[in-house]
Amino acid sequence: TFVDPSSTSIKNNDVINVLLIGETGVGKSTFINAFINYLTFPTLEQAQSNKPLVAIPVSFIITTGENFEEHTVKFGDSNDLNNEDFQHPGQSVTQHCKSYVIHLDYNDKRTLRIIDTPGFGDTRGINQDDLNMQHIFEYINDLTHLNAICILLKPNVSRLNNYFKTCLTQLLDVLGPNVSQNIMFCFTNTRSTFYTPGNTAPLLKTKLSSLPIKNIPFNKENTFCFDSESFRYLVAVQNTIQFNVEEKQEYETGWLNSVNESNRFLTYIRKQLNTYSLRNNWQSIRYAQIQIKHMIRPILESMRNILRNLILCSIDPLTNKFIKLCPRALDRPSAFCASCKRDPFQLKNFWISPDDAHDFQSKCSTCSCVSDQHSSIDYILSYDNLNSSSNEEQNKMTNLLDQLSCASIDFAHFLMNNISRSIKEDPFRMGLKRIIREEKQICEDHESNQLNLCLVQELEKLLITYEDQMKKKPSNEKQENLQFIYERIEAICKHSIIHGQMIAIHQQREKCKDNHHEIEITQNSISQKIYLSTEC
């Protein structure tokens, strides 16, 4: 059952975080909808006397009667449809990670956050699976802890997806081997296998035994068998689809079993599992990659602005007036459009293109340009005057520019040599070339452009030096040890010009999680968002 969230203070220690992963088509979104209803209605009769609680839009076909009549049932909140794609079979229906926060009526008043994720085994290929995993890692990177990793499976499958092993291996690599003790297994549609894993069990044991980590538990205690069909029955009945008495009795039994498993699921997490901190000292290549990718824009924008200020120093060595970056976090998923024109403004005789953030999720809602012309952003930059001692500031800026240049080479080399499929081109080099194009466009559009011409020249010198240094690093040489990269990341993030932008990135991700990628579930908020339709 639910309690009023306004009466509950949600702190990190009060939240049970459950990461839900599974193959494309296994039914993660349906499982979440069903799970919410199992927690709310102890019997199917009680559920039928109310409206089903629907947190995620779902579409399915159900057959009834002796002639196997097909009924298509679609339901859910139309506002959430941009995260669910039912039009491409074999592709993951869930497009992005999204959290569902359930306020539990337990004495400790804890809150359950179930994190729905894109499925693996996507028909678009292993590159898409890698991108989905990268998105999952970036999403949980903003959490402080995990309580459980729930692997969702179907019973009686003839084979497990080849990416299943890769997925688990990557999770253990990123989170550390100790998280293996927080792994659970949930099976859907188990009515046909008498509420057991069926033939999937021996296949799963074989896969687990082939992993580098050998002690992942798989037993009755951490395995849970549900019947999602009973939830589908509930929704179908609401759509006036008829069932016979025998079918109804089977669904009632499935509902009761699923309610018992749901309660056992929560009890196991709350009483048997230790909270797994994501702020431990475990180091991984994937985590370093995530951190570096977040740092690309802050580093490049810092280098561009340092060059602006050094040009001001070269024109007037006695100047104490410089340009300061002022990052501001965005409150929704946004992107730059490379095709849309921006109107530059002048500051210290530099023309500067303003950050024009477009609302962007699966497509842009601001312009009609194609998606590949857009690049996601977490914050926008404004600019202010900075007063400082010229000689002291110039030395600091020169030293910092050298540090950022060297760090970008180390980081790019690390990305290119360790994550081959998801990083096809050097993102630092691409970013530098994009900035040069922006400055050249400004020079073409404005006649009084002397300082911007100087900036283009300095940026091009920077690019040439960068490319030369990258060529000197052997392409087959593994990057310096991981400890070095972690220390490099920490050192660069301490610089105030970088630190301010990194804070803005974190703030934006928190805002987007709260406003766009997280839903708090109550009986009232869900029951008011039912949109059901039936096609026969």
TrEMBL record:
* PROSITE patterns cross-referenced by the UniProt entry: SIGMA54_INTERACT_1 (PS00675)
Cross-referenced InterPro entries: P-loop_NTPase, Sigma_54_int_dom_ATP-bd_1
Protein name as it appears in the record: G domain-containing protein
Q: Which organism is it from?
A: Adineta steineri
